[in-house]
Amino acid sequence: MIQAIDIDVWPVTNTQPRAPVRFNHLPLGFLSPVILLDSKAQQTELEWISYPPNGWEEISGLDENYTPIRTYQVCQVMEPNQNNWLRTNWIEKGDAQRIFVELKFTLRDCNSLPGVVGTCKETFNLYYQETDSEVGRSLRENQYVKIDTIAADESFTQGDLGERKMKLNTEVRIIGPLSRRGFYLAFQDVGACIALVSVKVYYKKCWSIIENLATFPDTVTGSEFSSLVEVEGMCVSDAEEEADNSPKMHCSAEGEWLVPIGKCICKAGFHQKGDACEPCGRGFYKSSSQDLQCSRCPAHSFNDREGSWRCDCEDGYYRALSDPPSVACTRPPSAPQNLVYNINQTTVSLEWSPPADTGGRNDVSYRVICRRCSWEPEECVPCGPNVGYSPAQSGLVDTYVTIMDLLAHANYTFEVEAVNGVSDLSRTQRLFAAVSIATGQAVLFRR
């Protein structure tokens, strides 16, 4: 798109004395390009190749801040068949495939120049040549590829000269895809009165960003105007890819990130804050990357370090292997209460009440330990496999059990213990209710 602005100038023709050129800086209108050449930024001589020598001429000028700049002009309008070439120095393209060339120039209206009918032109041509290295100062026209014919949107006239105003034109052209290490630009004058105020060469890239906790590196745009370059992101520190949903973005031809896909999530022990993952603080934890935030340690647990995925249990409290880190730590239950028995010869029935303290769990069951004791105190041995239990010896849900097939006239001690999911983890003394009995005469069966 052509843009034009009014500027204060000294006329630039081959009949006027050299004088400073003054113009306004125009915004580029796109995202952060990578500049390969900016003639306006160079204050020393450009030293581009001009052929023939009496064609394009390098002059000094001032920008809108009165900073010295170097420009080129040509105004061979009196004679026909002009063929004046100007070639830039070699431009290394880096990783670029599509190159943008922005030209700012002024052009004299041929009708404002007397005596040049048929010889004056109002266009010039832009060319380029790809090479892998510099080719010296020679200029061979047949090695250059034409990019376009450049015409002015606004040209200045004799009246503009009197008001010391003229129009500055901006034209942008694209070349590519390029495959060699670098290139030259060349400008062909065919008989116009031109001041080439600035030449800017650049390419576009998508600059490194963090999106969805993934870092996407600087990425050069694709070779085609409609191309999207797919880029895989790398998770930031202490983050990991979401399952089957790796982070991706697409770099557009205009240097913009588009179409985010997938994401990273903070690992266990870390939570998201802005574009980073920070560790959970002391007294907090995060057990899974799927959790969004850190949680305070559950009851009877603690941690004294940052970045924890679980909290440790206090002394005397435990967490079963099947317990998730989000549940409170618990302890074994207290002993069953109100244990009573009933003896019928060699069969004993036991009943009891639940413990006063379940340890904070709801998976309480009961188990019975049977010991046969001698007449001497504390001389007891396990009852052995011949003794029967109904409904079972362990894993009892109900608070009763019947013990059968005991020996007649024997002493027994029965211990009833309440257990839960952490009882076997406890290192403290077992808590149980106990009763000691003596069996009577065994039942005799007659045939």
UniProtKB/TrEMBL annotation:
UniProt subcellular location: Membrane
Listed GO MF terms: ATP binding; transmembrane-ephrin receptor activity
Keywords: ATP-binding, Glycoprotein, Kinase, Membrane, Nucleotide-binding, Phosphoprotein, Receptor, Repeat, Signal, Transferase, Transmembrane, Transmembrane helix, Tyrosine-protein kinase
Main location as per UniProt: membrane
Every Eph LBD domain range: 33-211
Reactions accelerated catalytically: L-tyrosyl-[protein] + ATP = O-phospho-L-tyrosyl-[protein] + ADP + H(+)
This enzyme's EC code(s): 2.7.10.1
Domain of life according to the entry: Eukaryota
InterPro entries tied to this protein: Ephrin_rcpt_lig-bd_dom, Ephrin_rcpt_TKs, FN3_dom, FN3_sf, Galactose-bd-like_sf, Ig-like_fold, Tyr-kin_ephrin_A/B_rcpt-like, Tyr_kinase_rcpt_V_CS
UniProt GO cellular component terms: dendrite; plasma membrane
UniProt membrane topology term: Single-pass type I membrane protein
Any one GO BP annotation for this protein: axon guidance
Fibronectin type-III domain boundaries: 332-442
Name this protein carries in UniProt: receptor protein-tyrosine kinase
Source organism (scientific name): Lates japonicus
